[in-house]
Specification:
Structural class: alpha/beta
Shape: globular
Number of helices: 4
Largest sheet: 5 strands, parallel
Strand order of the largest sheet: 1-2-3-4-5
Helix content: 10-25%
Radius of gyration: 14 Å
Length: 132
C-alpha cells in the first residue's frame, strides 16, 4: 500500500497484493474497505497477480476499479471471469497465465471479451486485455 495512513484506512487509489500466495479472497471487499480510505470512491487499481486465487468475489463492482491484475493465478472457469462484467469502470484487465487460458479452443481472449463486452451492451470501457 502506498499512501498516507489514517485512522480509517490509507489514502490511496492503488493496492498491490501480488505475490502473496493468496488463495481465498471471499472477504476481499471487507478488507479493502478497512485498508483503503473511501475505497468505494478511490480504489482504481488493484493488483492480485501471482497468487493462487481460484474464485473471484462477486462484489468487486463495489469499487471503481479501472485496472485489475489477475494474471498468474489459478482461475479455471470462465464463470469466474463473467463476475467481472459488473465492474462498469474496468478499463484494463490481465488474466494470462491462468488455467482458463488453455480453454476455449485457443480463443481465450475472444471468449473473455465476449463475456465482458457482449455486443458492447455491458462493460464498454474495457480497452486492454493482457496488456494488449
Amino acid at each position: 500500500i502506498c499512501g498516507t495512513p489514517r485512522y480509517n484506512g490509507y489514502v490511496c487509489n492503488a493496492l498491490k497484493l501480488g505475490n502473496n500466495q493468496l488463495q481465498k479472497i471471499t472477504e476481499l471487499s471487507r478488507c479493502l474497505k478497512m485498508l483503503v480510505h473511501h475505497s468505494t470512491i478511490n480504489l482504481t487499481f488493484l493488483d492480485l497477480s501471482c497468487n493462487c486465487i481460484e474464485v473471484i468475489p462477486s462484489d468487486m463492482d463495489e469499487f471503481p476499479i479501472q485496472v485489475l491484475y489477475l494474471h498468474s493465478n489459478n482461475i479455471r472457469s470462465f464463470d469466474e471471469v463473467k463476475k467481472l462484467s459488473s465492474i462498469s469502470t474496468l478499463y484494463s484487465l490481465t488474466l494470462w497465465n491462468n488455467p482458463l487460458e488453455n480453454k476455449a479452443d485457443g480463443n481465450y481472449k475472444m471468449h473473455v471479451l465476449n463475456l465482458l463486452c457482449p455486443a458492447f451492451t455491458g462493460n464498454t470501457l474495457l480497452r486492454k486485455l493482457d496488456h494488449a
